[in-house]
Amino acid sequence: MKPLGDVPWPPDPIVTDRLILRETRTEDRKGLAELLSDETVQAYLGGPQHTREELEELIPQDPNTRPGIFAVEHAGEFVGRITIQRRDRAWAHHVREEGDEVEIGYEFLPITWGRGIATEATRAALGWIERTLPGEPVVLTTQVANEPSLRLARKLGFVEVERFMGFGAEQWFGHLRDE
């Protein structure tokens, strides 16, 4: 995967009814450490690679390390992140021959689950993609076993392109259907 080198970053914050999507900040470090060390959140992403304490040491003071990562804020607190990046051409799974599609991903703290926050945030990010990179195909990959992620992808309008084995599990690869 590679960052969005063709997009000015950071963008202006995106404000929805309940959320703010913005660049990550120093005050997000604690929430990022919680997100990246939570076994439930990371269950379909290979599991936590570090403890929360280790991550609090490893995450840079300025966690805004690359373009394409939106921190999601709800009621003044970091609750998750959305990543937007170019899908590297080396991957075997693409929707266009030359690859390099825009790929979106999302991770949210369990306190947000079932409240529509992931849907609201991801819709806002998809709107930003459409305004910033009009006409670009948008793709998403999630484990087939990650039923909540798969439901969200379908709810957002992603349709299955194919399934494949990767990272020791069956993966679902989809693209955002044209309206």
Automatic annotation (TrEMBL):
It comes from the Bacteria. It comes from Nocardioides luteus. Pfam families: Acetyltransf_3. One of its GO terms (molecular function) is acyltransferase activity, transferring groups other than amino-acyl groups. InterPro entries: Acyl_CoA_acyltransferase (IPR016181), GNAT_dom (IPR000182), N-acetyltransferase (IPR051531). This is GNAT family N-acetyltransferase. Residues 19-179 form the N-acetyltransferase domain. PROSITE patterns: GNAT.
